Amino acid sequence: MKTGRKKLNLLLAGTMLAGALAGCSSAEKETENKPSAAADNVNKEGFPVVKEPLTLTMMGPDVGIQNWDKMPLFQEMEKKTGIHMTFQNAPKDAFETKKNLVFVSGTYPDIFYAAGLTPAEQMNYGEQGILLPLEDLIEGYAPNVKKILDDNPEIRKSITAPDGHIYALPVIEFNQPWYRNPLWYNGDYLKALGVTKLPETTEELYAYLKRVKTEDPNKNGQADEIPLSSASPGNSLRDIRTWLLGAFGIYEEEIYVDDSDKVHYTPIEAGYKDYLTYLNRLWKEDLLDHESFSQTSEQREAKARNNQLGLFSAWTAFQMMGEEPNTDDPMFSPVKSDSVDKPAIAKNKGINTGAFAISKTNPSPEASMRWVDYAYSVEGATMFNKGPEGILWKYTDKANFVKEYLPVPDGGDREEYRSRITPNYGIPAPTINLPEIDKGLLGDVDAWVANETKTKLLDRGARIPFPVLFLTPEEQADVTAMTSDLNTYVRQMEAKFVTGAEPLTNWDGYVATIKKMGGERMAEIYQTAYDRWKSN
Q: Which of 176-185, 295-304, 430-439, 483-492 has the lowest mean pLDDT?
């Protein structure tokens, strides 16, 4: 009884403190929503954005080999807008640490760019008044963002916190349908084995992988072929898991919602057990690479370039295999098991939240919002994505957004050079990804990849596994408390079940452990959040 009373007292104290903080932050936000002292310096439309030059500070994760202050993208934006950016960046792999330190320091950059602010961070720092609410700024100073949100109410729902505020702008990816890099077949193996019809069921896939193992499709006289290979240390089979889980009716590895709006916690589903059973079968027969739980992506790539892999995950097969662009290696067509009528096929959520936020010390939120709004137009998104016109590309018909590539200035790799001229390179940078951006730039191979994606994924009912949404502070606290231990246990047990270190006869004990750790509670929390999101 004493323990229970102590917990209750702590809960009440926390609630009172949260209420007091909410009252303070509401007062702060009410003040901060009023026009800033610099609002008169901002032009509401056209360029430049400001009447008199303005300097702002920006914090983001460094990528590529060029400092942001030397990037042509920021130099061109300064010419267009009149806003000079100074940068407080950190290397990408150390950015999360620096971001956390900055939030507790009390000294903030004016803008958080590509910061990957989680919904929990947005709510926490938004309710404290550190991050400004953006909805009024969007209404008055961001016509491109406003139109996107008006035309796509589900995006607005997904970036709006439970308190009704928008604290960060997202990355919007309308033309990237993949949930995770697809699987690809080695086309040379298919030809060598005389395969003209790709597997449609798990049994047909098993039979194909067995042939890869035993029939020497790379024709070197050695039994060195690896039918299926994965590489994602720390998250075990993540790069292939989504596509193989789908064969057993499951859309996502942790949380997904079915067609009846019921939320599931995947690791305790019967379909997940079937997935483990299937992978264990492949493992025992040496059809799944026995280095899958330990090798790096580079080690797996070396095997692909040595023509040893039959099926693997990659952005494209030819890149993984070190070849010139070609259409020889078909995309995996999701297979189904006997337990389902059709495979579950996951597609990209279309948005990545927390890409752009404005701090309370920003001297001109209005100018900041106008600056980033350009990145959500076709013209601006093109420049943010590919760098300013005249370096790697140029318009051939600007009215219709048709472009052509220019030679790479140093004759090197186009993507590597792009990392020198724009920060939108491997980080969640605030912008919108539209088909018009690549208009005129896509070749025959690009069209083939798009058709493979359409016919094998999109036309077969691919859908978002679970929407982007916010949890309440209480829900988030519960999820945060459970997630790390649950994820660690689930991934450890996946490896043990697949390799046979733990027999699948111990499944019931595994499920009981997960339930004790909060697995069922996770499903309940996300069910409540999903119902709230859907009815919003």
A: 176-185
Take residue 262 and report the two structure tokens written for it. Answer: 């019921």
Q: pLDDT by residue (tens digit) across 65-112?
A: 779 999 999 999 999 999 999 999 999 889 999 999 999 999 999 999
**In Å, how far are 93, 423, 493 from 426, measured between CA atoms?**
12, 8, 31
* Averaged pLDDT, 131-152: 97
pLDDT (0 to 100) of residue 33: 61
Residues 331 and 216 in one domain: yes
CA dist., res. 95 & res. 56, Å (int): 20
Q: What total of structural domains would you count in the chain?
A: 2
Q: Is 149 exposed, middle or buried (0-12, 13-18, 19+ CB in 10 A)?
A: buried
Residue ranges in 47-186 assigned as alpha helix (H):
72-81, 95-105, 119-127, 135-141, 143-151, 153-159
CB-count exposure of residue 410 (10 Å: 0-12, 13-18, 19+): exposed
Regarding beta strands 393-397 and 402-405, do their DSSP bridges make them parallel or antiparallel, or are they unpaired? Answer: antiparallel
What is the spatial distance between Cα 533 and Cα 530, in angstroms, rounded to a whole number? 5
**Pairing mode of beta strands 183-185, 169-173:** unpaired
**Prediction pTM value:** 0.83
Q: Which domain holds residue 249?
A: 183-346+466-535
Query: Domain ends where: 424, 439, 454?
Result: 439
Give the domain-ending residue among 388, 423, 439: 439
